[in-house]
Design brief:
The chain has about 240 residues and is of the alpha/beta class. The chain has one domain: Rossmann fold (3-Layer(aba) Sandwich). Helix content is about 35%, strand content about 20%. It has 9 helices and 8 strands. Strands 1-4-3-2-5-6-8-7 form an 8-stranded mixed sheet, with helices on both faces. Helix 6 links the parallel strand 5 and strand 6. The longest helix has 14 residues. About 40% of the residues are buried.
């Protein structure tokens, strides 16, 4: 909390001002500067083509990467792919960016912004090989339902941003939310569930899709059932 004589940070209309975001922002102070591996989006974040260096044919985005376990692993597993993690909590994004910097790899980046809005207004048609959404907050209270990533308006956003035969990868321990996503994505005219792809990426190991994430490790230790889906973008 800001001291009485400190100016309050300006409201950013791209961000939800909810308690969960405040909680996710409270991480330890970092001794290392994340440097160019972290971009603070602000009210007018740079477009995807401004963030990603020229020459990358395959670009993937993770929405809500938290502490960055998947993005960091994916930069190693897929050296020919550029990974962008879009995280609403600046503290987590900074921590993740430091980890990526320490890895010595340059095919990744973290951005502080609203992930759904970024896909909607900063990504061009067919720019993405994949979108990853792992353990998103289910926002179980009815008054917060609009804060979910998977609302009615997200299908056309995903269909526009993901290229033909690209993928949406999703994982959750929340049975109700996973069921909702399976129904919504399963009925979409632009996507089809691909169980062969689900098996392939799991067999390929960490960094390809679904794993690793901090939530996954925690929930496996707790014995929770994790549901994982891959939805392929059908040709236009």
């Amino acid at each position: 909390m800001a001291e009485p004589d400190e100016p309050r940070p300006a409201h950013n209309p791209r961000m939800h001002q909810g308690g969960k975001l405040s909680f996710r922002s409270r991480v330890q102070e970092l001794e290392e500067d994340p440097g160019e591996f972290l971009v603070l989006g602000g009210k007018n974040p740079p477009a995807l083509h401004e963030l990603v260096p020229a020459g990358w044919d395959d670009i993937e985005i993770e929405i809500g990467p938290g502490k960055g376990a998947f993005v960091v692993a994916a930069t190693e597993a897929k050296p020919d792919t550029f990974l962008l993690g879009i995280e609403a909590a600046s503290g987590y994004a900074e921590l993740a960016a430091v980890k990526l910097k320490q890895s010595g790899r340059d095919n990744g980046l973290f951005l502080v912004d609203n992930g759904k809005l970024y896909l909607q207004d900063r990504v061009d048609d067919s720019d993405l090989a994949a979108v990853h959404v792992y353990f998103p907050d289910p926002w179980p209270k009815r008054r917060h339902a609009g804060r979910r990533f998977f609302t009615d308006d997200v299908l056309p956003v995903l269909a526009r941003a993901i290229r033909d035969h690209g993928f949406l990868y999703f994982a959750s321990d929340n049975a109700a939310y996973a069921g909702q996503v399976a129904r919504v994505m399963g009925s979409a005219v632009d996507f089809v569930r691909d169980v062969d792809e689900e098996a392939r990426v799991l067999a390929a190991g960490p960094g390809h899709a679904f794993t690793p994430t901090n939530f996954e490790r925690k929930y496996i230790e707790q014995g929770r059932v994790i549901r994982r889906y891959a939805f392929r973008r059908l040709p236009r």
